[in-house]
Specification:
- The chain has helices spanning about 10-30, 45-55, 55-75, 90-95, 105-115, 125-130, 135-140, 150-160, 170-185, 215-225; strands at about 5-10, 40, 80, 120-125, 145, 190-195, 210-215.
- The chain is globular and about 45 Å long.
- The protein is an alpha/beta fold.
- It starts with a strand and ends with a helix.
- β1, α1 and β2 (about 40) form a beta-alpha-beta unit.
- It has two domains: about 5-105 and about 215-225, 3-Layer(aba) Sandwich (Rossmann fold), CATH 3.40.50.1860; about 105-215, Rossmann fold, CATH 3.40.50.1860.
- α1 (about 10-30) crosses α10 (about 215-225), α2 runs antiparallel to α3 (about 55-75) and α3 crosses α4.
- The model has no long low-confidence stretch (mean pLDDT about 95).
- It has ten helices and seven strands.
- A four-stranded parallel β-sheet has the order 5-4-6-7, sandwiched between helices.
Length: about 230
């Protein structure tokens, strides 16, 4: 029996991509139409944003733990959260969680190590790009990280919250991300982290001058592997 996966969701698009990846790619491991049992819970996204905008990571942790308790009661053996930004509350969450979690940035860092990457550009919300989630996990593996310039971070943040989380993916925004990735490449990055779980729906491998590390799908695939242990 595969282990039961719990998903603590935040935004619809990122959670849906993660869920879809587990279901579709699970068939490669478990057989046609087969994937591990999954339970997902999310609080309304505005509740998360209220705490994130106030810098109240304890409040974020409380929401994550509330969802964790619900999926654990439904039988989940471990939990993933397809949202990079809220991982800033991860250390608080893991101390109180009823079941173990996988950490999205740890899975990205592991993939970067596997591919012998040395310098990653980080794309995501302003809170993610300017926060400790990725630098801390990458540094332990000797991987350098860079983020876009201030005005670029502001525009990326606007695109994420005004468009991507609402399922809007425009050519104009795709072009903007492509240009930012080009500039990260010129600064010495050898790959780029798609560190908002909606970005993979906008930026593809074919449209990026740097190899993209898709945090959403990497987390889903790690969950599939964990479900087999």
């Amino acid at each position: 029996m595969a282990k039961h996966i719990g998903i603590v969701a935040c935004t619809a698009e990122g959670a849906a991509l993660c869920y879809r990846t587990v279901c579709m790619e699970g068939q490669e491991l478990f057989g046609k139409y087969t994937h591990p049992e999954i339970t997902m819970h999310t609080h309304p996204f505005n509740e998360y944003m209220r705490y994130i905008e106030a810098g109240d990571w304890e409040g974020v942790a409380d929401l994550m733990l509330s969802s964790a308790e619900k999926v654990a009661r439904a039988g989940a053996d471990f939990i993933i959260c397809p949202d990079n930004t809220v991982h800033q509350a991860f250390d608080t969450v893991i101390k109180k969680s009823p079941v173990p979690w996988l950490h999205i940035a740890e899975e990205v860092a592991a993939e970067a190590t596997r591919r012998n990457l040395k310098h990653l550009g980080i794309l995501g919300t302003r809170y993610l790009m300017e926060g400790p989630v990725y630098p801390s996990k990458l540094a332990t593996r000797g991987i350098e990280s860079s983020i876009p310039e201030t005005n670029e971070r502001r525009r990326i943040n606007e695109i994420i919250f005004d468009e991507l989380v609402n399922g809007l993916f425009t050519d104009e925004s795709r072009t903007y991300f492509t240009e930012v990735i080009d500039r990260l490449k010129n600064r010495g990055c050898d790959a780029v982290v798609l560190g908002c779980t909606e970005i993979p729906l906008l930026v593809t491998k074919q449209g990026s001058s740097l190899p993209p590390l898709d945090s959403t799908r990497l987390l889903a695939r790690a969950a599939l592997r964990r479900s087999m242990v």
